[in-house]
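Researcher: We're teaching a course module on how sequence relates to structure. For the next exercise, students receive a sequence and then see the predicted structure as tokens, so they can try to spot secondary structure elements on their own. Here is the exercise chain.
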Amino acid sequence: MDWPAEFQKAIEVERSGRQTGGAGVVLRRVLKDNLAAQISGEVRGEHIAETRAHLVDLAIKTMFAAIEARSGRADFVVLATGGYGRGMLAPESDVDLLFLHDQKTDDSLRPSVDALLYPLWDAGLTIGQGVHTTQSAMALARDDIAALTSFLDARLICGSARLAATFFDAYGAYRKRHGASFTRAKLAEREARYATQRENSGWIEPNLKEGRGGLRDADLVGWLYRFQTGKDLWARTQAPGFIEPRDLRALKKARKYLWAVRVYLHTLNARADDNVRFDIQPALADALGYDDRRHIAAPERVLKHLRLNSDIVFRITNIVTARMEDRYARLSKLAPRAMPRRLVKDEIPGDVNIRFKTNRLTFSRPALARRRPIDLMRIVRAASKRPDLEIHPDAIEIMVEGAAAMSREDRDDEQIKQIFLAILEKGKAPFRTFRLLSDTGLLAKLIPMFGRISGRIEYGLYRRYSIEDQVFHCLEMLRRLEKGELEGKHPIATAFLKGKKNRLRFYLTVLLQEVYWADTERSVSKAEGLAFRIAKRFVDVQTAKDIAWCAANPDAMIAAAETRDLSLRRSVERFALKVGSKDRLDVLLILTVCRIRTISEDSWDEWTRGQISALYFGARAVLSGGTQALETWRAEEREALKTNLSGLLSQWPQEKLDTRLADISGSVGARVPPDVLARGLQLVDEVPGAAVGLWPRDGFFEAIVLAPDRIGLLANLALAASRSGTSVRMLQAMSVSDGRALDFFVLKPLTPVPPEAQRDFLAELHRALNEAAAVNFEGARAPSRRLRDRRMLFSVPSEVRIDHEADEDSLLVEAEGRDRPGLLGQLATALSEIGVMIKSAHVATYGERAVDAFYLQDAPGYKITNKRRIQSIERRILGVLNEH
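Model: And here is the predicted structure for the students to work with:
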């Protein structure tokens, strides 16, 4: 039996009262089986959505016919509205219906409407419905922009054509008179939608429907056209005066791709969730037929294609909305104005080929701009001076065409390079400007590496932006540093930039910082070579070499600061030797600050500032005068620390302070904030045994633990912190001459702690650390895994690196692998179980990837040199890293 006949029979059984819910069961099965068959047959997503809408149409028509057969006639009309009205229905989308009638009340229709709705509900569909006369429907539409938009897509499913025509005529008459107000309202909606999506994680987890360039933007173009003309844009091959044919083709293609992704996303989520979250990305890539390619995982490929198609939708939406604003000129936000003189002139001779069009910048002579690539750059330069001014989409169209036609000779034109460097070094709002250069294709023509990284996503938790947007946000951060806006948090970098007249090398380094991703082999040396070839087009050879090294090693400073013991002279000397020059060191400092601040707002804190500052000034001393200069600087640092401590511990005589500092190994060279170290000194002085100090600071918790030293102490403390809901952000270990250990921790809560819960949280954490500090503590069990720990979604290769030369007295072992709760404690426990002492430990996390560095000794303090012993350490650490 074919399904419509089976469905009709089930309806008849329900009407007889012998059974209820049977029709819904049949429809649910039909929808489910059809979806499964189409997915297994690899049918494109938009076709699945169209088929699903058609099946629901058939079900409604069948039920409507049954109502007519029973009552003689049905005095109402069923219209599909919203997305369903457009003939597209994703697996978990709402079915929006409008019931139209011409009776005085809705009550007489209730039995018929219920008879139609209940089988749809029983089938598991979410229904949005309204029952109206033409007059009440239009009254609602006039007052509610959502209803007005939904009714715009209305189509007749079944019922009286005459009654439906009455509604369509009334709507059409209203539409023709209110084009300007509708456009104004939809553009305001778009701005509000963008505002709510602005904190979207930078296309790492995009919203397919509401995000920038999402399906809602494509819908907006269709709505504006339909409201203007009364015709369906998606059924047309041309729309003269509204959108260029090539743009319409591109928009349709991008819309089809987004719909394909949406259908499979709904299927995998089993709910109407349009967020492409990390946990669904691998399955989504598989469902769409993506596989891993060399150096790019399947989920990254999906996200890249999503980004590229969304960029197309976003660009074309901007073109259409601007043309609509031209049509309704009173919608313009800016009053007409004369062209500011400073925009007509720039760094090269002659007036710029620009004018205002509805208060946007455009070309005064478009034909000339099409022939002269320099004009494309000069209009961007003008916009970089006045970020409040937009470039008209007509000009953007010319820029896109011109970028595609640019030759190598154009790229190397001296005037074009001059304007580009002015945009880079002097332009305001760099993110907006470089996003424009990228969207038009000009950036990829000028610097081809951007063509390779455009749309690229690093699949993981480390970044919050796409690779390209990371660069643009860093340029914005550099501009803010230069202007002094971040002087409170970054006084060194701010003061440093103020003293530099030529800052081009900093901007070029920031611009090229992701060159590693443009190299298919992912080789640092090849990335450096590519960066050098780009940089030497703009600067002298030596400066280009410095820029290239820093761009190919952008995380060198933060890695050294987080995973090396900076109280050791050798750590600083080796880093300085790796950098090679003061010029490179200066550039690397600025790049490091920009990267850390851009990757995550909470990555920069007082401890990070202290580590970066110490490494920078220590390395600068080495590069200025070698080991002697470093020792001089370290001596000055010690004296400055003592001065600070004397002020903080003013009640102590100087002799007592000197004695206490001498009692604690590493206390003077360690990069612990003076106020924290002062608290540690007070604990050592006042408490004969074990003690714990704990307090909140800037969203973190700082802890001091004083306890009898032993193998396994660090493991106990780290596991206790993890079981209490924190992770170790920073750790500094010291030894007291009386056999106790003095350990300083910065702990980050795994989930935010509300202010009202902080007291209890601190009490529990304090209790756990006190217990771990006890000599007889035996609770070194690993914490339980947290539900929905997003780090578990990713595969991170485990690696152990051994460094014999990092310290004269200890062996440096780096453990890299997937981060998880209690990893530091588990690694430390594994080391303590084979009798290894941890002299100091250093923790770095990069999203789902953890790098824990340990300076190790054999009891009672000997450097580990035996090969078998080292192999045993390596095996134990790999065993912990590979646990799942």
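Model: If you want an answer key for the exercise: The chain has a mean pLDDT of 88. DSSP finds 37 helices and 16 strands in the chain.
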